[in-house]
Amino acid sequence: MVAVRGEMSWFCCGNAWGPCGSTGHGACGTCNSGSRQHAWPAASQACLDITRPDLCGIGLTRRSCGFRHRTTNLCNGAAVTTSIADCGPRTRSFCGERSCCGANCASNRLIDLTPSAYSVIASLSTGLRPVSVDVG
Amino acid sequence: MTTKLDRRVFLTAAVLTGATAVGSLDPAEAFAAPKFDVEPGAPDPNFVEGRIGTITGTMLFVTGSDGVFNRVRVTGATSVWKLTPTSFEKVAVGDGLYARGVRMADGVLAAESLWVNIVNIEAHISSIGRNVLHLEHHGSKIVAHVVPGTTATVYNGTPAISDMSLLKVGGHVKVIGAWIPDTNEIQIATVYAGV
Question: Which of the four CATH numbers 2.70.70, 1.10.3470, 2.50.20, 2.40.50 does domain B47-116 have?
Fold first, then answer.
């Protein structure tokens, strides 16, 4: 299994309260904060044109809606498997950004999980965590 | 983790059914793909999102943004976040929340963690004032208040500091904060910015 290291964050989607209320159901039309889903920067060519992980030196295979990735939090070893429901994060906006837990570090925004998925492996208040994503 | 969980479920089931011997597994079954506690893409039964309509004792009555009604039980072991780690007394009717816990047989979610009014916003800074950032997020403007003594800034993964002087108008930031239901503004917990 091939894995890529990067940063994970979370995002809200679907029906929601507060500033999340205008986000909609994502590029795949299925995204909901309470479901085990994620946004992937290579969810389509149009998505790649926006996120441009290549500008940060990351080559990602294009995967479409519903494809599953397994994300492991490098801070605690906890893992969750989710399916693609949106395009993101916008990797190019944070090229070189780095998150660490002790000696476990990762650079560049790689994946955004829904609150449901993120909270399985980290507290929502952490915002950013270094992770490894199985992309095989 | 999945392997341990499956084994625990398996052994628990064996105990509950009074089994005294365990037969061998079919090899194909033994090496089959691991099962998920929740199917990827599916709604998570151990997670609740919504706004608090009523609080009775330690029970929160929550209406999900999709209209689904949930009861969330807070215990002495429940961790509560509302801008900072805090106590249940700070939770109020009208607050939005995310809750993770264990769904009990009666449908109540026994909460392990509550994140109250938490927001995670990717935005551009449109202007900077005294103790306030004006953000542009998906075409909407958001007023984000700095809370002295609480708000922290992380520049490119370095340790969090209180100095926000390196933030720039037009810069792209991620903000973890707490939504204020009455004003639709937010208070900033942490700003993540590149420099």
Answer: 2.40.50
